[in-house]
Write a structure and sequence with these properties.
By secondary structure, the protein is of the alpha/beta class. The protein has 21 helices and 31 strands. Bound molecules: zinc ion (2 copies).
Length: 832
């Protein structure tokens, strides 16, 4: 998870509104003269939405007609004509900061659209109709426009209206507390004119060109689908101040709510003991580490005094901050624990599935629940929040019911990021669903910390629209309050993910297909059909893949981006490039084409690696780094640039480059000479009963029959998993025979296993155990074994490898995933 360090960390607002479905009403004169000329066909989507609303909800439409008649709908309002201002932006005489900001955004974008700068003035100074009334104003009240307002700790009051009354246009929403309703009214109005903010920065902005802006009669009231809407755009990657400002602007324009100040970020448990001297005076309230020392960053969860001090801290805080809605605390990152006897005895010992082993849930939530119960006596309407992360992902088994003021941020890092919640072929997402279903049954306030796109550091597109369009409506139905999504500031990875997320966070009923279509038309012009085809081909390839990946894992792209998928993607890009495009669309197609070529270079790298062409694989990784630098030079928003702040982003590809270079150095480079590349396909045999060693399966002819397996991919990806994606686990054997040249005689010989997913590893050569790592050998690092005395030059040799794996958990992968080879080290070579 992590502590937000950059991205959206404003201490500002929190907004919201969940359970009520978004209501959108809008009307337009369908047969009237098309009064807004838009080169970008800006109002198309608005009109379409109106039509579908009218066709499906005649009752609403009739009611609206009645409303129009009652108010005397009036004529169209002209904001700009022939590039000249024809209206003014009017705020209250003493507008809220939010309304002032909204007026500024409106002025800025109307000017960008039309060249006309509307004057911003106050309602005392401008009383004649023909105004755009921004925010809560006496004038709007006089016109009987009901604007969302007020605030309770249920956070149910957010919303906005966009309405014409006579010759005035009202853009206003709730500005109480930290609500941004008026700003969102302006954003949504600009969106109806055709403005889009697809990605942070100039590259992602679409502004139509209109010499005339005429507003037809409209009456639109909306409430958000989720109370908490936030994307931590940069994720845990560092970014510059300038980038941070760009992300914040993007978040604002895409109707994010910001978050309450008090969220359960990692390590926030320390806020419960603000007085550092307590470690001296009350050491017993702090957790014990394994060595029996008190630790300052975690509390003893079974110590009554720890509860008392926590309650005192929180009640003091609420007394001093009457407008505070929440107090939140969570243990530090990692798998925290108190190793005191009393605490350890209270851990029931459930674990597995990568949710922490053992689960701390019973201890932690009992502590949090006690604190919440006591705080509630004085502050029944405030929320105590904590997180369900790492070793607290499971629900506690020993708590019958929770204090009604306790809320949770569920952060399931060990869930596949390729598949939607509940995907029947993905046990991780099925487990996720079971957890969310139970949390939302038990607690009122549940919000989600999720990972989009997961840790996609390979820099490949990681499309999640197929998940978003299922998951957000699902979570909305479960009554989830909202999101803190850990993002990733590389457009080439996330593409439209964040934008679509933002749209659905506001209105969960939005049609994702329609959003994508609109994006393709606005962004790629005459290449819209090609790019739309490209995007959905990629989405479907991920959605239908039967491999799985979680945060921080290498994604097995070669099994997702198969040759037929690549062929279809190539075709779509080629078609787009052949079109006669305008300059902007041409540039954008070029960028996507570069991203596509970068992806293919990655696949070429993997192919070279699987062929044992290690030098070529390393060179292709280096080429990928160059391609990213080229993209960053086109626009720094496309991918984090290559300077020091972005080391982490580069690290995975640099790691590919360096590891493969190390293999190349062994097999025909500065450190040695290749003697034999062992076959790519070996014999394979699971050993669930653990009898292989006694039966000597490491010898030819033993343990028959055997299956065949490719050693360049872990076994789950080769079909060794059930229909839910649960892989074969426990022990399994690999065995092969190969001819060793007589030239190898009298030379030092090393057997190198490229890489093995394992929790225990044993290697035999010609019937003799030559290496053992009973706990684990690092799953990504080559294993070098001196076999000079064990191989027989000029004869057929047998190599057998026994691999152990744990039950399916966070990283359910087993077995060899890189080639095995024999080489002769040069004397005094330093291995890399
Ligand atoms: Zn303890
Ligand atoms: Zn999956």
């Amino acid at each position: 998870m992590g502590t937000p360090s950059c991205g959206r960390t404003r201490s500002r607002r929190t907004t919201t509104w969940p359970m009520c479905s978004t209501t959108t009403t809008c009307r337009s004169r369908r047969r009237g003269r098309r009064s807004v000329r838009s080169r970008a066909a800006s109002l198309m989507s608005f009109e379409r939405r109106s039509r579908s609303l009218l066709s499906t909800r005649p009752a609403i439409f009739m009611a609206l007609l009645a409303g129009i008649a009652a108010r005397g709908a009036g004529a169209d309002l002209l904001l700009v004509d022939r590039g000249e201002p024809r209206s003014v932006i009017v705020t209250a005489d003493a507008p809220s900061p939010s309304a002032r900001k909204a007026a500024g955004v409106l002025q800025e974008y109307i000017e960008k659209i039309s060249g006309a700068r509307l004057r911003v003035t106050t309602e005392s100074a401008s009383t004649a109709p023909g105004r755009v009334l921004v925010g809560h104003t006496a004038a709007a009240r006089k016109l009987n426009v009901e604007i969302p307002s007020g605030f309770t700790t249920k956070l149910n009051e957010e919303g906005f209206v966009i309405r014409t009354v006579g010759q005035d246009l009202i853009l206003a929403g709730n500005e109480d507390w930290r609500y941004r309703g008026t700003e969102i009214a302006v954003n949504k109005f600009l969106e109806s004119l055709g403005c889009r903010w697809y990605f942070a920065g100039d590259y992602g902005e679409v502004v139509p060109t209109l010499r005339r802006i005429r507003v037809r009669p409209v009456d639109r009231t909306e409430r958000p689908s989720f109370r908490l809407r936030n994307i931590w755009y940069s994720g845990w990657m560092t970014c510059t101040e300038e980038e941070h400002a760009r992300f914040v602007k993007w978040c604002d324009l895409n109707n994010m709510s910001g978050m309450p100040r008090r969220l359960p970020y990692d390590g926030s448990v320390k806020k419960l003991v603000p007085d550092a001297s307590l470690l001296e005076s009350h050491p017993h309230i702090f957790a014990l580490d394994k060595q029996g020392n008190r630790v300052p960053d975690m509390l003893c969860m079974t110590e009554p005094d720890a509860v008392k001090i926590a309650v005192r801290t929180i009640t003091d805080y609420f007394r001093e901050h009457p407008d505070a809605v929440t107090f939140a605390f969570a243990p530090p990152d990692g798998h925290p624990m108190c190793h005191g006897e009393r605490c350890l005895a209270a851990v029931p010992g459930f674990g597995g599935k990568g949710y922490g082993d053992p689960s701390l849930s019973d201890l932690w939530f009992r502590f949090a629940n006690k604190v919440a119960t006591k705080v509630r006596k004085e502050f029944p309407d405030r929320w105590i929040l904590t997180n369900g992360y790492a070793n607290r992902v499971r629900l506690p088994e020993g708590i019958g019911s929770f204090s009604p003021n306790l809320g949770i941020q569920s952060a399931v890092i060990a869930a596949c990021t390729l598949h939607r919640i509940g995907d029947p072929a993905c046990w991780q997402r099925r487990s996720y669903r079971k957890l969310i279903d139970r949390w939302t049954e038990q607690l009122d306030w549940v919000f989600i910390y999720d990972y989009d796109p997961g840790k996609g550091l390979d820099g490949l597109p990681f499309p999640t629209l197929h998940c978003i369009r299922h998951d957000l409506p699902y979570l909305h139905r479960r009554g989830v309050w909202g999101f803190w999504t850990e993002g990733n500031n590389g457009w080439m990875i996330t593409h439209l993910n964040h934008y679509v997320r933002a749209r659905l966070m506001w209105n969960v009923n939005e049609d994702v297909g329609q959003i994508v279509r609109d994006y393709c038309e606005k962004f790629y012009g005459r290449a819209a059909d090609d790019i739309e085809r490209y995007m959905w081909k990629l989405e479907h390839a991920v959605e239908r893949s039967r491999v799985h990946t979680t945060w921080g894992r290498l994604t097995p792209w070669k099994h997702i981006l198969t040759s037929d998928v690549i062929e279809a993607l190539d075709g779509a890009i080629a078609d787009a490039e052949r079109r006669n495009l305008e300059a902007d669309a041409r540039r954008r197609v070029d960028v996507l084409s570069r991203v596509h070529r970068h992806m293919k270079t990655y696949l070429d790298m993997v192919t070279a690696l699987d062929d044992g062409a290690f030098r070529q694989a390393s060179d292709l990784a280096a080429r990928m780094l160059e391609m990213r630098d080229e993209l960053a030079r086109i626009d720094p928003s496309l991918i984090p640039h290559t300077g020091p702040p972005y080391r982490e982003f580069r690290s995975t590809t640099e790691w590919h480059r360096d590891v493969y270079q190390g293999l190349a150095d062994r097999a025909g480079g500065k450190n040695g000479e290749l003697i034999a590349m062992l076959p790519r396909r070996w014999q394979f045999k699971p050993d669930a009963k653990d009898v292989g060693v006694l039966d000597r399966w490491y010898l030819p002819g033993r343990g028959e029959p055997w299956e065949r397996i490719d050693v360049t991919t872990y076994w789950e990806a080769q079909g060794h998993q059930d229909a839910e994606g649960f892989g074969t686990w426990g022990k399994a054997w690999y065995r092969t025979r190969f001819q060793l040249s007589a030239d190898a005689a009298d030379r030092p010989l090393t057997l190198t296993l490229g890489a093995v997913y394992n929790r225990g590893l044993w290697v035999w050569v010609n019937g003799v155990l030559v290496a053992h790592h009973p706990e684990k050998h690092d799953v990504r690092t080559p294993l070098d074994i001196d076999v000079t005395r064990h191989l027989n030059p000029g004869r057929v040799n047998t190599v057998a490898i026994l691999v152990n794996t744990p039950p399916p958990g966070r990283n359910p992968r087993g077995g060899l995933h890189r080639r095995v080879f024999v080489w002769s080290p040069r004397s005094s070579s330093g291995l890399r």
